[in-house]
Amino acid sequence: MGLELYLDLLSQPCRAIYIFAKKNRIPFELRTVDLRKGQHLSDTFAHVNPLQKVPVLKDGDFILTESVAILLYLARQYKVPDHWYPRDLQACARVDEYLAWQHTALRRNCLRALWHKVMLPVFLGEPVSPEMLATTLAELDMALQVLEGKFLQDKAFLTGPHISLADLVAITELMHPVGAGCQVFKGRPNLAAWRQRVEAAVGEVLFQEAHEVILKAKDSQPADPTLKQKMLPKVLAMIQ
Amino acid sequence: MGGEGVAGLWYLEPRTSLGWVTGGTRPPPFLSSVLPAVPAPAMGLELYLDLLSQPCRAVYIFARKNRIPFELRTVEVLKGQNHSDDFVQVNPLRKVPALKDGDFTLAESVAILLYLARKYEAPDHWYPQDLQARARVDEYLSWQHTALRVSCTRAMWQKMMLPVFLGQRVPPETLETTLAALDRCLQLLEDMFLKGQDFLAGPRISVADLVAITELMHPVSAGCDIFKSRPKLAAWRQRVEAAVGEDLFREAHAAIMKAKDLPPADTAVKEKLKPLAQLFM
Known about the structure:
Chain A has 240 residues and is of the alpha+beta class.
């Protein structure tokens, strides 16, 4: 069995991996784990990842979780073009810096925006107070300011003149609130221009394909009561 | 430090000449016109740290253990020094640790550790060349941000800093929930990462172990006996301390271990730290 990637394109980190693998023509078997059907909670999947999360990489006997680790492993294993994760010490450090920062900043805010605005009410039937939603969107706004002000500034891409893993991770994050109907690029021409450049560098067709699922998130079928009961505490823990 | 020619001598031998102090200062104006222009000595590596912070301890231990020459710039977060104009120039995110290497500034402890490992060519085991071994380190460094880091910080603040330093009451149920979450994280640390290995990512110590041990010392400093009833983890701790060196380990943790003896903050400090405190509830 060759390389297997366990993904659900509903998830931001899964999209980053999907785009990266496809863009770099890395041969892999796509193993879809449908989160909204609770497939990540199955016993079969627990054998792959006892943490019951996606994405997961399986390369023979080697199993790897954590999207940042997976992206770096793929970049090295398949010797992708240097700009994705440069050899240059300082350029590389800039990518590392973004990949570290985003976990508790942009990632968290984009995740909360999607769940508070769409997924909790529509998929899990849990209302979210307007105050909570307002707070979440305000926090997202602050993260976007840091993204523009500290990371992007006047560069073409987040860490320099060429697209890197940082841009892939960031753009797939931002598509989460976009999928929830948040206009994150409105009033942010710099960021909007960066988005265009990232999409062009990735390729429009691949970009659209990777984002089909998230853009239809608001049409999610409500979860049945059993699944809701299983998922709700985990979701709340995930988005805290 | 050094310098060529006459100007360099002024920098190196101030007291034997006309008695003014060096340290990157220029000669007095009346001499500038006769001396060749010499740039001030380049500042080497600077690490902006507060050893009360877990990621700062990991960076400190790594740099010291690998004999990386650096200037320690202490930034006391409890005194709000991370908001000073000077520090904001180094890290606009106003957080420690931060690195300054000439004109190059860098935030985020994971990025800093990897930069130092690469630039100073630290021994391979810290961040192994082997693809799968390296991936295991990356996996830990990624997971910990939203897992162990969070529960260790919350446990320490809710058990100690909030009540003792900031005089803020923490409801027992809140603390209980936090300690339960910490316990689950510790279980994952043992089951998913450590497993039957000597260190988190394999048979030798890596940056993953440094990041983990410095996290765990946070609840330890607050009096949480996390190694009691966890013999596997306790044995791993001994190995990490031995690999780092007892003296260096103790030195890096001196400040945090005395945190419980900090006098209560005055009203001004309490007000300033309120938003930070809210984060930890």
